[in-house]
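Regression check, zinc ion case 347:
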Amino acid sequence: MSFTSPEQRQAFIAAIPKAELHLHIEGSLEPEMMFALAQRNAVDIPFASADEVRKAYAFSNLQDFLDIYYQGMNVLRTEQDFYDLTMAYFERIHADNAIHAEIFFDPQGHTERGIAFSIAIDGILRAMDDAGSKLGISSQLIMCFLRHLSEKEAFATLEEASPYLDRIAGVGLDSSEMGHPPSKFAKVFAKAKALGLKTVAHAGEEGPPEYIWEALDLLKIDRMDHGNRSLEDEALVKNLRDNQMALTVCPLSNLALCVIDKLEDHPLKKMLGLGLRATVNSDDPSYFGGYLNDNYEATATALNLDKDDIVNLAKNSFRGSFLGEDAIEQSLQRIDEYVSEFDRKIG
Ligand code: HPA
Ligand code: ZN
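Current build output:
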């Protein structure tokens, strides 16, 4: 079914229950908070105002962004900083009617600059607990390894995570993709799996289909982050469809990092048409110009998504989550109830 007006579509997107599965918590650091934390922690930053920070956010590829992203996280020093960062994100997506989030953090981005693993994770976990009790948002935490670092360093990070394994749902792989194929991390991912952790990896954001195959065959991922370049390989598309592998697609990120030239070229609608389990996510919302609903809304406008597409995307966000079967079923029902109520009102 199609919408009768853009306003109707916007209202439908705004209130549909949804989950976010691809969000780097450090990428939700808004310029205003960057300034406040720089002041609180007496950290020098090379910008005079929040507006100046925003002006610096013009990227031509992933590496351009990563350079600024690692610089930005330098203001995060205390457990309270990580709490404030994470709680601000949850409050923001609460307004988007997100009811579940599976968030990434980059411990090596902090330990490398002398901030203890425990400081970062304790603040994030405390906010996750409060998001559950105060906002009714459930969440899980995924620890990413920086792929520009060595596998040995990833092993050391996994070791540091030992006391927290009951609070970590899985491990992921992020940072500079080209030149750092998934095969580089096969052993540490096998260890993580043996420890009972889920595995995900960024693949096919900039990297070729071979990297995606490696993520599937060698890292044995439970979910794929991005996956845009899967569409270049028919056998890969068939594999992803047959296994109903969730893809955590990030449209505004793809636009900001020049993975696509314009949103109208985004492959999301094509992915859905091919029967792939695509989801919509924000990646690094403060850097890429939009949170969860902004991503849905911009993509729906550019690709003329209809109501079935939006429902499919929202349902996929739960189907592709690491929630248990019952919680997934309940969330799908909640979406069905939402749709019935919406139809009744516009009746
Ligand atoms: N890609 C890879 N690594 C990242 C990203 C991303 O979009 N955001 C934060 N780390
Ligand atoms: Zn990402």
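Comparison notes: The CA atoms of residues 19 and 100 lie 5 Å apart. The mean pLDDT is 97. No diff flagged against the previous build.
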